[in-house]
Amino acid sequence: MLSFSQRMGLTPVRSEIQRESADDALRTDLWNVVYSKYINFFPSYAKASNSEHSGLIKSLWTQYFGNCLDDLPISDIITIGIKDRILGSYWYDIFDILEFIPNHFYLERSVKNQYNAEFICIVNAVLEKHLSAYRFVNNKIVEITSDAEITAIETAIESPDTQETVKIHLSRALELLSDRKNPDYRNSIKESISAIEAYAQIITNNPKATLGQALNILEKDHDLHEALKKSFASLYGYTSDASGIRHALLEVPSLKQEDALFMLVTCSAFINYLKAKIQQ
C-alpha cells in the first residue's frame, strides 16, 4: 500500500525488482519478522536447554555459524549474530538464514508446520512489498516473481494426491534450482522432465510408458482435446528427443536460471492439469 507522500509523488516508489540485492528497508522488515516470530522467544541458553527453541539455537550456533557446541554462549550473542547477518551481510546471506531457520525449528510436526507456514507467508509478503525477486516455495527460497508460478509448483509438490515419485523429482528440481551458491540448472531441468515421465508411468500403470502413451489414454478416456495433446507431445518431444533439452540443449554450458524455472513451472502445471483430467 502506498503512503500518502508516495501517492502525492513527494517520495519515490520502488519500481525495480531487487535481484541479487537487498536494500535497507527490505533487510529491516525481514529482521523484524525473524525477531518477532523466532528470536523474541529465545531465552538464554541456560534456560533454553529444555525449550522448544533449544534445538534451533544449537543448530544455528553449530551448523549455520559453524561454531563448537561447547562454546555456545549463555547470552544473546547468537541473536546479535543473526541480526548482523540480515542487516549488514551479503544479500544471499539473508536468504540463507531465512531458509535455515524454519527448516531447523524443532517442534511437534503439525505445530511446526503451522508456525513455519505463518512465518513463510509473512516473509513472502515482505518480499513482494519490496519488489524482491525471491520467494519461499516449498520451504526453499527461489528467484521467482509470479504468484501463479509459485502456486503451480507448490500444488504439484504438496498436493496429497501427488504420487511420491513425482514429488521427489519436482522437489529435487526445486532444490537444484534454488541453490544460490552452486545452482545446477542442467540437472534441475532433467528432474522436472523426469517428474512428467514418472507421472506418465503412473497414468498408464506401465513403468516403461512414455508420455505419448499416457496422452493417448487421456485422449481416449478423459476427453483430452487433440490440440492440447499435440501441444503437450511437442513440448515433451522438445525436452526429450535427440535435438531437445535432454541431449543437445543440456550440453550447452550457458543454461540459465530462467531456463530451469520455465521447465519446473511448466512441468508442474502440466502435471496439475493431467491430474485434474484424470479425476473428472
- Unreliable stretches, pLDDT < 50, 5 or more residues? 44-50
Largest beta-sheet details: 2 strands, antiparallel
Q: Helical percent range?
A: 55-70%
Topology order in helix (H) and strand (E) letters:
HHHHHHHEEHHHHHH
Q: Record the strand order, biggest sheet.
A: 1-2
What value does the average pLDDT take? 78
Radius of gyration: 22 Å
Amino-to-carboxy terminus distance: 41 Å
- Strand portion, in percent? under 5%
Top keywords for this entry?
3% strand; mainly alpha; single chain; 280 residues; elongated; two-stranded antiparallel ribbon
Element layout with pairings:
Elements: H1 4-7, H2 24-37, H3 45-48, H4 54-64, H5 77-88, H6 91-103, H7 109-129, E1 134-137, E2 140-143, H8 147-158, H9 164-178, H10 185-204, H11 211-221, H12 226-240, H13 257-279
Antiparallel strand pairs: 1-2
Structure description:
The structure is a single chain. With 280 residues, the protein is mainly alpha-helical. It contains 13 helices and 2 strands. It has a two-stranded antiparallel ribbon. Helix 2 (24-37) packs antiparallel against helix 7 and helix 8 (147-158) crosses helix 13 (257-279). 30% of the residues are buried. Residues 44-50 have low confidence and may be disordered.
Brief description of this entry?
By secondary structure, this protein is mainly α.
